Amino acid sequence: MAILDIITLPDPRLKLVSEPVAVVDDEIRRILDDMLETMYDAPGIGLAAIQVGVAKRMLTIDLSREGEERAPLFVINPEIVWSSEETNTYQEGCLSVPEHYDDVERPARVKVKFLDRDGKPQEIEADGLLATCLQHEIDHLDGVVFIDHLSRLKRERVTKKFSKVAKVRSRLTGWRPSMG
């Protein structure tokens, strides 16, 4: 397993819509394992493949706390088939928007159909933090970052901050976000 680079704002790849996984094979499982190791290293509780530059509809989640046994969830080709009218608000953060947190309102409960790490069809009903995390990561697969749920003013403020950082980094190191 390898720790992958996590792309951050303003990298345009974060706006890409990810392609479905056609076949769950050893290569897909290797990418999922690398994503999981990257997520744990970051540390985070969820990671979409596009956040490591892979435009495939897959994600990893693990809500276990430090000291608890790890409980990774591998989700391939997720589809939200039902969401509640009731909503919850959580303060969300994102590995692709480091050190920025804000309240996001989402459906409190969701039902998601997906393929597991072995390519077997699964369905999960989630509420609370798991429901929020699933929706947050599935948003990434559709080119949506959590700040897109904020007011225009807040979103522009965050985007401007990360664009300035990218410009300074580019001048100092020659780094530029790339399309891939």
Explained architecture:
There is one protein chain. The protein is an alpha+beta fold and 180 residues long. 29% of the residues lie in helices and 28% in strands. The strands form two sheets. The protein has a five-stranded antiparallel β-sheet with strand order 1-2-3-6-7. A two-stranded antiparallel sheet has the order 4-5. β6 (109-115) and β7 (121-127) form a beta hairpin. The longest helix has 22 residues, at 152-173. The mean pLDDT is 93.
Task: List the SSEs and their pairings.
Elements (H helix, E strand, L loop, with lengths): L25 H16 L4 E3 L9 E4 L11 E11 L3 E8 L2 E11 L1 E7 L5 E7 H14 L10 H22 L7
Antiparallel strand pairs: 1-2, 2-3, 3-6, 4-5, 6-7
- What about the largest sheet? 5 strands, antiparallel
Helix content: 25-40%
Within the largest sheet, what's the order of strands?
1-2-3-6-7
End-to-end CA span: 22 Å
Counting DSSP E segments of at least 2 residues, the number of strands comes to: 7
Uncertain runs are none
* Global mean pLDDT: 93
List SSEs in N-to-C order.
HEEEEEEEHH
Decide which structural class fits the backbone: alpha+beta
Q: What overall geometry do the principal axes of the alpha carbons give?
A: globular
